[in-house]
Amino acid sequence: MPINYYIFLSVALFCIGVAGVLTRRNAIIVFMCVELMLNAVNLLLVAFSKMHHLALAATNPNAGMNAQIFVFFIMVVAAAEVSVGLAIIVMMYRNTHSVDVNFLNRLKH
Amino acid sequence: MSTTQILFWFLSILAIFSAIMVVASKNPVHSVLWLIAVFFAISGHYILLNAQFLAIVNLIVYAGAIMVLFLFVIMLMNLNGDTEPQKNKWLKIAGVIAGGALLMVFVAALKNADLKNQIAQVNGGNIGLISNLGMELFHEYVIPFEISSVLFLSAMVGAVVIGKKE
Questions:
Q1: What is the CATH number of the domain that holds A86?
Q2: Which of B98, B120, B137 is closest, CB to CB, to A1?
Q3: What global pTM score does this model have?
Q4: Does residue A107 lie in a domain region?
Q5: Distance, C-alpha A1 to centroid of its chain
Q6: Per the CB 3.0–4.6 Å rule, which of A23, A40, B41, B57 could disulfide with B14?
Q7: Contact present, A16 and B87 (Cβ < 8 Å)
């Protein structure tokens, strides 16, 4: 597969995530759109790792493996981030009885 | 068209359609289910790229664990389409236009990139297999691997402290 296709697929998924963050007010959906953007970047990293591997496999059989390790660590960090983020959303729901991000403007005053 | 090409287009269309439905559906539970569909499509792409370990980890961690956590929180708060806060129409249109403009900028910038004859290897290559990744992970990346356990511990403590009742 030409790498262009993967680039455009990832860019499309990323931009859908950005549009979701901008259009939705539910904090949980905003958070899910952030996860979508993370996954778009992961997909692009794996595609680039396979591109790099194909180009350099003759001299270095392990070329491109680093990218897949990075994707693994991105997933690790995302799992930790989700647990803390959902705890913050639950705390916000307990205080305001809503998950509307528009209520989160108290630091302004 | 070969089988891999058909699979690529099928998975791409499934991923993009499901991603649009995540943003467009009113009910948060439906959004979560569509997001699981996106993760399955992305895992399919990983399998197509022969990154088998990442495909399985993506399914177990994202579609399995993280999405169940989201579903738990949504059902705990009893959110549905009726309680969903809505932005006004113009803000929504502005958001969609902003996302589309970003897409246009990316596509315009990358359209002429000199990548025409770079191919991502599908259906071959063994760097994504678990034996090779495991050797690399526990030789060169063993210190980041151990540090990530500290990250998990601190995330766990943080989640408990934040979620605790006063």
A1: 1.10.287.3510
A2: B120
A3: 0.91
A4: no
A5: 23
A6: B41
A7: no
Domain ranges of chain B: 1-86, 129-166
pLDDT in tens, B37-82: 999 999 999 999 888 899 999 999 988 889 999 999 988 888 777 7
Work out the minimum CA distance from B43 to partner chain A, whole angstroms: 9
Chain B: residue nearest A57 by CA? B125
Which tens digit of pLDDT belongs to each residue from A49-93? 988 888 887 788 778 888 889 999 999 999 999 999 999 888 888
In a domain, A89, yes or no: yes
- Of residues B23, B119, B163, nearest to A19 (C-beta): B23
Per DSSP, chain B holds a count of helices (H) and strands (E) of 7, 0
Let me know if A57 is exposed, middle or buried by CB neighbors in 10 A (0-12, 13-18, 19+): middle
Euclidean distance between CA atoms B164 and A68, whole angstroms: 36
Pick the residue from chain A with its C-alpha nearest to B74: A28
CA-based nearest residue in chain B for residue A82: B66
Q: What is the spatial distance between Cα B14 and Cα B16, in angstroms, rounded to a whole number?
A: 6
Q: Which fold has domain B1-86?
A: Four Helix Bundle (Hemerythrin (Met), subunit A) (1.20.120)
